[in-house]
């Protein structure tokens, strides 16, 4: 029973750190939280050292709340801004070498299935656009070809944020950034298209303008990965520093980009559709 | 995990389930053995069969491919629980680390260029305190391209914090692999181990190997028994994420990073006592007290043995130190073995002379012997016994 994992022995709870007690008593273990409940429960991630106003942190916060079973989830990340916040979450986090996420997650997930045949463990890769589409491209694609049962979430800020603003494969054509002094020559990589060709079972493109939709999308992706096959979410998480977006305008930028070229889209395989119809029809507890 | 293309029948029993678990001590030191005449790759297969491996991930490269495709057949028979061909070596080395982090026994193998390609991942294993087994069939890495044996690649592993064994022959490859499999699991070790062997000379040639019965396998890896928790989310995760000290790289204090490294290298030393027992000494000494000594590891030991034998026939006593564990480095044992030597030869199968450098830094100020950095062959050349004998004769002439 999942909640038992974090249940302290009787008599011990009062001696544990207050933060831990709060997680057990007021956290999201064993429950499904709603976006509208934010602020009313102990969240898995509460502080981070990322830039003020960074949209990526909002997305990561939502992703943690959306985890369908945080007590049996493992996050896999890599070099890049996102790991600064992900590593602060109360979910085990693997931080390997830059770009190794999907290879690492493949071995991890298969090994967990050997050790815990009766307990599904959710493995979630959350990494930057550079980490996935450039240096980690091969691992990403091959994990999809192999239909590895974990979720990949691309934190697509369209730039190498953590190294100070260089062009990435996900940067749009023409954009002037470091290492693209005359503007990016090639087009933004069609990662959604690649995922489709590779046979990924659930693919979604999203901008965090609607928290409830973000959470629903993440849940769907994790549930499909648990039972069916690979899943991929590409989230626009703007970098206000490198793109010089004034902090109060970060959400306006998100709405604008969403409207212009980053509209919500889901591409779902037939077997994943069937599966989702089944799980989502069950009455809510 | 994956739905196999060719499904097993419903009543299929994995062969591994029929084996009995025993300790490495019992497997290596107590069980009766039967002699077979097999290649080094087959010796590795027989070790893997008995090593109770959970996950093996492979990427082909000459001369390693033989071994990892044999591992594929072992998986098909049910001696290994999970197996696939990875995308390339950095992917394989990362995936093996992912599996090891989850608390299972993981194994892979590679050769020269594959090792170099996977090197970023490999060199991160010790600090991550994951403990996979890496079999390394040495092969040239320098340009021009060649597939020949040459163990220069081992010099790149020496300071990673990995445990490193160097097998002389097919028998060693079998024994060392099983010894390593158990040693890496000790709670005071929890480190990866690379078992190197000189490619082709050992992997593709036959030699006598005495094997304990295949009815036995080593006790399984217990994922709970690590010096850091396995990454399985069975421990309360309240900000005690297993990788915490390493992942906050920008914020971690220099002291914290330094002490983490110190602990890794201390763990390397702590593994010594286990190897001492399972390998019956971390060095082997022939003709102790001799004036002339040869210190060697890997295939060079065999050449040295033959030189020692031929010298013996001529009535001259030449000593030999075979170094089995490159890490932990048996420095004190080597000092004790050669303290009265006058001349020391260090034959190697690489251009860099990494063993020579190791020995020199150990013996400096500890012994009066003149140490010769050679003979050396590389690029796939064999080392004729005559070459060792010539070097010995020359050494005696130059330093009487
Ligand atoms: C092998 C290797 N190459 C390069 C780097 C340097 N590096 C660290 S983070 C990073 C860029 C991160 O960009 P992205 O993945 O898009 O994530 P973001 O920071 O934008 O969220 C790079 C190039 C590294 N850590 N390792
Ligand atoms: S550099 Fe950009 S992506 Fe990174 S934390 Fe700052 S705003 Fe966010």
**How many individual helices of chain B?**
16
CATH architecture of the largest domain in chain B: 3-Layer(aba) Sandwich
Mean pLDDT across all amino acids of chain B: 93
Count of alpha and pi helical runs of chain A: 10
Query: CATH superfamily membership of the largest domain in chain B, which one?
Result: Thiamin diphosphate (ThDP)-binding fold, Pyr/PP domains
In short:
Chain A has 285 residues and is an alpha/beta fold. Chain A has ten helices and seven strands. The longest helix of chain B is centred in the middle third of the chain and has 17 residues, at 254-270.
Blueprint of the fold:
The complex is a heterodimer of chains A (285) and B (400).
Chain A: H1 18-26, H2 55-66, E1 73-77, H3 82-86, E2 93-95, H4 101-115, E3 122-128, H5 129-134, H6 137-145, E4 151-156, H7 191-197, E5 202-206, H8 211-227, E6 231-236, H9 250-260, E7 265-268, H10 270-281
Parallel strand pairs in A: 1-2, 1-3, 3-4, 4-6, 5-6
Antiparallel strand pairs in A: 5-7
Helix pairs in contact in A: 2-8, 4-6
Chain B: E1 20-22, H1 24-30, E2 33-39, H2 40-50, E3 55-58, H3 65-77, E4 82-85, H4 89-101, E5 106-110, H5 112-117, H6 119-122, H7 125-128, E6 133-138, H8 154-157, E7 163-167, H9 170-183, E8 193-198, E9 206-212, E10 216-218, H10 244-247, H11 254-270, H12 272-278, E11 283-286, E12 292-296, H13 300-313, E13 318-323, E14 325-327, H14 331-338, E15 343-345, H15 354-363, E16 370-372, H16 385-398
Helix pairs in contact in B: 1-9, 2-3, 2-9, 13-16
Residues 50-51, 54, 56, 81, 157, 161, 239-242 of chain A line the site of iron/sulfur cluster (SF4).
């Amino acid at each position: 029973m999942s909640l038992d994992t974090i249940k302290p022995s009787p008599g011990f709870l009062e001696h544990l750190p207050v933060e831990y007690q709060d997680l057990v008593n007021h956290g999201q273990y064993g429950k499904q939280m709603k976006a509208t409940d934010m602020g009313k429960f102990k969240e898995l991630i509460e502080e981070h050292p990322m830039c003020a106003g960074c949209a990526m942190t909002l997305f990561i916060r939502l992703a943690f709340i959306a985890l369908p079973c945080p007590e049996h989830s493992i996050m896999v990340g890599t070099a890049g801004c996102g790991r600064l916040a992900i590593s602060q979450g109360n979910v085990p986090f693997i931080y390997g070498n830059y770009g190794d996420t999907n290879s690492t997650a493949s071995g991890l997930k298969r090994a967990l299935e050997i050790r815990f045949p009766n307990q599904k463990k959710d493995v979630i890769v959350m990494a930057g656009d550079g980490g996935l589409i450039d240096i980690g491209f091969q691992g990403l694609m091959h994990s999809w070809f192999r239909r590895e049962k974990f979720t990949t979430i691309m934190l697509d800020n369209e730039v190498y944020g953590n190294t100070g603003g260089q062009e990435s494969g996900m940067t749009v054509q023409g954009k002037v950034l470091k290492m693209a002094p005359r503007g990016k020559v090639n087009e933004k990589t069609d990662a959604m298209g690649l995922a489709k060709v590779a046979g990924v079972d659930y693919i979604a493109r999203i901008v965090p303008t609607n928290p409830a939709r973000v959470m629903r999308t993440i849940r769907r992706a994790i549930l499909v990965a648990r039972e069916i096959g690979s899943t991929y979410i590409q989230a626009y998480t703007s970098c206000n520093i490198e793109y010089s977006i004034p902090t109060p305008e970060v959400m306006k930028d998100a709405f604008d980009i969403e409207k212009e070229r980053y509209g919500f889209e889901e591409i779902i395989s037939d077997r994943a559709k069937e599966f989702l119809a089944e799980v989502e029809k069950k009455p809510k507890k | 995990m994956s739905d196999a293309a060719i499904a097993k029948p419903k009543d299929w029993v994995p062969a591994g389930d029929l084996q009995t678990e025993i300790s490495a001590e019992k497997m290596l030191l107590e069980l009766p053995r039967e002699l077979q005449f097999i290649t080094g790759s087959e010796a590795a297969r027989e070790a893997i069969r008995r090593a109770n491996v959970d996950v093996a991930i492979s990427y082909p490269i000459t001369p390693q491919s033989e071994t990892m495709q044999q591992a594929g057949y072992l998986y098909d028979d049910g001696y290994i629980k999970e197996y696939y061909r990875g995308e390339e070596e950095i992917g394989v080395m990362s995936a093996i680390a992912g599996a090891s982090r989850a608390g299972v026994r993981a194994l892979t193998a590679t050769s020269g260029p594959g090792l170099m390609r996977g090197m970023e991942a490999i060199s991160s294993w010790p600090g991550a305190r994951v403990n996979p087994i890496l079999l390394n069939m040495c092969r040239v890495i320098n340009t021009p391209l060649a597939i020949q044996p040459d163990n220069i690649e081992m010099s790149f592993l020496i300071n990673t914090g990995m445990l490193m064994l160097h097998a002389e022959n097919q028998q060693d490859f079998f024994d060392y692999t099983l010894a390593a499999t158990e040693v890496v699991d000790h709670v005071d070790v929890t480190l990866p181990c690379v078992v190197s062997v000189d490619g082709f000379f050992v992997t593709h040639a036959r030699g006598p190997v005495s094997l304990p019965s295949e009815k036995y396998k080593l006790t399984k890896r217990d994922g709970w028994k690590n010096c850091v928790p396995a990454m399985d989310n069975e421990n309360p995760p309240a900000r005690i994420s297993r990788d915490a000290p390493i992942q906050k790289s920008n914020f971690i204090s220099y002291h914290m990073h330094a002490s983490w490294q110190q602990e890794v290298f201390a763990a390397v030393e702590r593994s010594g006592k286990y190897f001492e027992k399972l390998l019956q000494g971390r060095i082997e000494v022939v003709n102790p007290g001799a004036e002339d000594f040869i210190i060697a590891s890997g295939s060079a030991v065999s050449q040295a043995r033959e030189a020692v034998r031929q010298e013996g026939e001529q009535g001259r006593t030449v000593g030999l130190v075979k170094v089995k564990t490159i890490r932990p480095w048996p420095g004190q044992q080597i000092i004790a073995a050669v303290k009265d030597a006058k001349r020391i030869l260090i034959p190697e199968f690489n251009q860099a002379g990494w063993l020579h450098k190791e020995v020199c830094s150990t013996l400096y100020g500890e012994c009066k012997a003149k140490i010769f950095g050679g003979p050396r062959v590389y690029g796939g050349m064999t080392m004729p016994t005559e070459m060792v004998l010539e070097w010995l004769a020359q050494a005696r002439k130059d330093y009487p």
